[in-house]
Amino acid sequence: MMNFKYLISVALISFTSCMEVKKENIAVVETSRVEHLPYYDDESFTPKWLEPGSEEERNFHSISDFHLVNQMGDSITQKTFENKIYVTDFFFTICPGICPQMTTNMKMIQEEFKDEPDVLLLSHSVMPSTDSVEVLKEYGEINGVIDNKWHLVTGDKKEIYSLGREQYFVENDLGEPKSIDDFLHTENFLLIDKNKHIRGIYNGLNRASVAQLITDIKTLQEE
After folding, report:
1. Which of 7, 47, 185, 200 is deepest in the core (most CB within 10 A)?
2. Which positions ≥6 away from 77 have C-beta within 8 Å?
3. Residue 4: which domain range?
4. 142: which residues sit within 8 A by CB, 6+ positions away?
């Protein structure tokens, strides 16, 4: 007759082995990536699966040109982001709620790619009347912003709000029209590729979402 202690030992070994296999399978799922990130062209953020370099991709929605000013007083346009991947968001310096955490998470992205010139960050002030160049400069110094890596921009309010709502689609209030008098406030981060296409939307308050954003940036770098 088989020893009872032996049976317990075998059972424990089998259980441990199963757990190890299960963990390995989870790791594979977590680290697997699609070959190409999807593309987005409206506020529904329905993914479109296009082939990079195709005619369809070339004719797809892209961010139009803009003219803003950063914390250094420099003009910022699409030329600034030529052949660059960038992450963008919308904030204001005196925001007591979501903005501090968004800034912290943007700083994580800055740290991850600080030595990689093809990745930039772009944060638009939604209160340009109070967020002057000087105010943005001070905010950047307090929060460890690297000049020319992470652009904090101000400018014409109408242009900034139009960019947010009509180009980046950062507010997800589907079907609800907004005017310049409706405050633009969102926790979303957007990932923009070198051809100015939107390739991802992420919750800027969620560390797991920001970690996925970092992974997706690396995927775009290899595209």
Report:
1. 200
2. 65, 66, 67, 68
3. 1-32
4. none
Do 60 and 27 lie in one domain? The reply is: no
Asked whether 150 and 110 are in contact (CB, 8 A), the reply is yes
d(CA 14, CA 17): 5
Strand order from edge to edge, sheet including 119-125: 75-76, 68-70, 150-154, 119-125, 85-91, 188-192, 198-203
Q: At what angle are helices 207-221 and 99-112 packed, to 10 degrees?
A: 30
Q: How many domains does the chain divide into?
A: 2
116 and 148, same domain (yes or no) = yes
Q: How far is CA 23 from the centre of its chain?
A: 28
Condensed to tens digits (0 to 9), the pLDDT of residues 160-219 reads 999 999 999 987 655 566 666 666 889 999 999 999 999 999 999 999 999 999 999 999
